[in-house]
Amino acid sequence: MVEDFKSVSQGKSLKHVREALGRLPSGGFERLSDLVVIPDVYGKVKREREIARKYSGGESQRHADLKNYLARHPEQLGLDATSRLTEYRFATGDRVDLLVRDRNGCAHAVEVEIGGDAENWVGMMQALKYRALLSPAFALAENACYGILAALSISREAREHCQRFGIRAVQIPLSRVQRKNYERETRRRKR
After folding, report:
1. Least confident of 21-30, 112-121, 132-141
2. Same structural domain for residues 30 and 62?
3. Do 30 and 53 fall within a single domain?
4. What is the pLDDT of residue 183?
5. Which is deepest, 38, 60, 150, 187, by most CB within 10 Å?
6. Contact indicator for 131, 93 with CB cutoff of 8 Å
């Protein structure tokens, strides 16, 4: 049965995964309905990011603009910042888009995504990972470490999962970010 679940879950739709879960024996779970199935979107996002790196040399201009905007304006995230770092590198080699320390001494790992369901799911998972890394990295109690997903658009489903796992989801209106940078990117893509 486990082999069947693995083969069905690889690149299949959520409907197929749920059908495979329905065939699993329920003796191993208290309530099978409590099992959370997050769609496997990693492959799609990985391909999109590989294409972006191939043609733009790394993160998109839109992503960089949003990250830099949030670094300059952490109040858009509801934070009273005392310090901000972009691309903070943990001892594990992981890099968080934005690290913010607030006046209460808390640390906030901000994962910046442009939007779209696939990026929202991956961004939520990255925010979870970075939140876990904050405590040992800065010798802080776990309740002084927070994860934030900041994006131009966040789906309702992604927002609900963020809430379930203790990640704050913040949608940043496009109108607040410098439009001239987006116009420049659009002109570059048309060439």
Report:
1. 21-30
2. no
3. no
4. 56
5. 150
6. no
